[in-house]
Amino acid sequence: MSNDTNNFRRLGNLLVITAPSGAGKSTLVKRLRTSISEIAFSISYTTRPARSGEEHGRDYFFVSISEFEKMKDENQFLEWAKVHSNYYGTHKKTVTEILLQGYDVILDIDVQGAEQIKLAMPEAVLIFIMPPSFSALSERLYSRDLDSKSVIEHRLKAASKEVACYDKFDYVIINDDLDSATTALVSVAQAERLRPNRMSNKLKHILTSFPLS
């Protein structure tokens, strides 16, 4: 059988993945990226200073406040937010170019950003990672020993508001078992690739090979 259809790329999906801090989102995203091919991670722009070990262009694009506000005024962002006096944003042109190349793009953003993305790109796939319980989330945040007690309390308070928005998402994955949650996330990404509108390039080529009735 000919593999000519491999030369006609599908359209990429925009996968917006959101979760309360400590729900295991970063680990699941890493597992997703190593489980399937043709998938890319969108690097956000931010005005906050780089932390130890972070690199410009790998972890974030670190820009000045004036640079960010200029880009914002020029409507260069799909979504943006100001969090704790720092700006964060997703660059529209970069994401669009990757999608047109047939690659899925992962956005790791908060609930507010996910809502902005859905308004700008209704075809985006919104996935919410749900912790198994409040107590499990609290235990994870305290056990990883990355933040002060006041910061953790703030994150837990925010989590109560975030989980209440689950019904605004297309999929909800409960991360009570990392392997099961990974399987679910990979399944969602693979199933979304099979939607007819995402496969239009390949399907048109196949259809034209059939004689007209």
Number of helices: 8
Radius of gyration: 19 Å
Number of strands: 9
Helix content: 40-55%
Structural shape: globular
Order of helices and strands: EHEEEHEEHEHEHHEHH
Low-confidence stretches: 1-6
Largest sheet: 5 strands, parallel
Report how far apart the termini are.
Answer: 23 Å
- How much of the residues is beta strand, in percent? 15-25%
User: Helices and strands: which structural class?
Assistant: alpha/beta
Mean pLDDT over all positions:
90
Q: Enumerate the strands of the largest sheet in spatial order, edge to edge or round the barrel.
A: 2-7-1-8-9
Task: Give structural notes.
By secondary structure, the protein is of the alpha/beta class. The chain has helices at residues 25-35, 65-73, 92-100, 111-120, 134-143, 149-163, 178-192, 200-208, and strands at residues 14-18, 39-41, 45-46, 61-62, 77-83, 86-91, 104-108, 125-130, 171-174. Strands 2-7-1-8-9 form a five-stranded parallel β-sheet, with helices on both faces. Helix 1 crosses helix 7 (178-192) and helix 5 (134-143) runs antiparallel to helix 6. The radius of gyration is 19 Å and the shape is globular. The model is unreliable at 1-6 (pLDDT under 50).
Topology of this protein?
Layout: E1 14-18, H1 25-35, E2 39-41, E3 45-46, E4 61-62, H2 65-73, E5 77-83, E6 86-91, H3 92-100, E7 104-108, H4 111-120, E8 125-130, H5 134-143, H6 149-163, E9 171-174, H7 178-192, H8 200-208
Parallel strand pairs: 1-7, 1-8, 2-7, 3-4, 8-9
Antiparallel strand pairs: 3-6, 5-6
Helix pairs in contact: 1-7, 5-6
